[in-house]
Amino acid sequence: MWIDRDPERFWSKVEKLPSGCWIWHGTIMPSNGAAMYNVTSRRLVKAHRIAWEETRGPLPEGARLLRTCKTQRCISPEHRLVLVPKDYE
Ligand SMILES: [Zn+2]
Questions:
Q1: What is the spatial distance between Cα 46 and Cα 27, in angstroms, rounded to a whole number?
Q2: How many angstroms is it from 65 CA to the middle of ligand 1?
Q3: Centre of ligand 1 from the C-alpha of residue 17, in Å
Q4: Distance CA 76, CA 35 (A)
Q5: Which three-class secondary structure state does DSSP give residue 85?
Q6: Are 27 and 37 in contact (CB under 8 A)?
Q7: How far apart are the CA of 42 and the centre of ligand 1, in A?
Q8: Distances from the Cα of 28 to the Cαs of 13, 34, 57, 61, 83, in angstroms?
Q9: pLDDT tens digit string along 12-61?
Q10: Rounded Cα–Cα distance for residues 46 and 87 (Å)
């Protein structure tokens, strides 16, 4: 997993709201608004994928996660639909 060495650092950037949204307070890509986690100084990983895998286990090969709520910074696994390649190819 991405954050085995320091899970507290990852979760310290997540604010869980009563609405169910998990707001990301880490890096946001200026180009597309994607929530990103700096695994190392040179490696960025999508924060919603880490949140999913840390709470639910590994994602299937090629899976994409589609946000189902309207909160741009939300990374909650509850608010994601998993698409596997057969769904989008
Ligand atoms: Zn949400």
A1: 10
A2: 13
A3: 9
A4: 11
A5: helix
A6: yes
A7: 28
A8: 12, 5, 24, 25, 23
A9: 999 999 999 999 999 999 999 999 998 887 889 999 999 999 999 999 88
A10: 21
**DSSP assignment of 53-80, as one string?**
HHHH-PPPTT-EEEE-SS-TTB--GGGE
Taking CA atoms, 62 is separated from 16, 23, 30, 59, 87, in Å, by: 27, 25, 25, 8, 11
Start-to-end CA distance of the chain, whole Å, equals: 27
> What does the alpha-carbon distance between residue 44 and residue 79 come to, in Å, rounded to a whole number?
22
Among 73, 77, 37, 38, smallest CA distance to 56 is for: 77
Cβ atoms 53, 47 nearer than 8 A: no
Helix (H) or strand (E) holding 87: helix 85-88
Instruction: Give the amino acid at 53.
Output: E
The structure's pTM equals 0.87
